[in-house]
What we know:
The protein folds into two domains: 1-81 and 169-199, no CATH class; 85-166, no CATH class. The protein has helices spanning 10-13, 56-69; strands at residues 3-7, 17-21, 24-28, 34-38, 44-48, 75-78, 85-93, 100-102, 104-109, 112-117, 127-130, 133-134, 139-142, 147-150, 159-165, 168-172, 179-183, 186-189, 193-196. Helix content is 9%, strand content 46%. It is mainly beta. The two termini are 14 Å apart.
Amino acid sequence: MSFVETQFPTDISYGASGGAMFSTDIVETFGGHEQRNINWSAARGQWNVAHGVKSETQLAALIAFFRARRGRAIGFRFKDWSDYRAANQVIGIGNGILKSFQLVKSYSSGGVTVDRVITKPVAGTIHVFKDGVEQASGWSVDAATGIVTFTSTPANNAIISATFEFDVPARFDTDQIDISLESYSVGSWHNIPIVELRI
């Protein structure tokens, strides 16, 4: 068991700091020019959730969650409050053959569009549309993979879109609890790193 569909406590993740990161090697020449080498084709999230712990109850819940995940060993769902929704997102175009479509979220800036594959949609938040018309039935979604499957094949050139919320597959990036007791029965854990998993 390397991943569980259990969500990290959202009242703690609400206070997290961090977000998307890339990996880029920069080589500088003697003349001051640069060569930038892109190591990752897609961003990977990284957060510190220590600031989200505001009470003894939250700290106890965090310790229990950490022990149950065995530190870095087992992945889980994480809600990144800075980026957890997609609205009217096109996820595919019907070709008369395909019945299944992967949820994605697109980010556009300066004429560049980057698609992010969404594998952990939140059940109960997903709305699916054909040519802008919401489909109340005739489809299902796998909340563990983000794949939407229709019972009947969408027509050729039908625009398939979706509105949904999503979690990020993640894990702790530490195997050690490091708590300091700052006052009677209240402790703090100053650095609690969480990183996104590629699934």
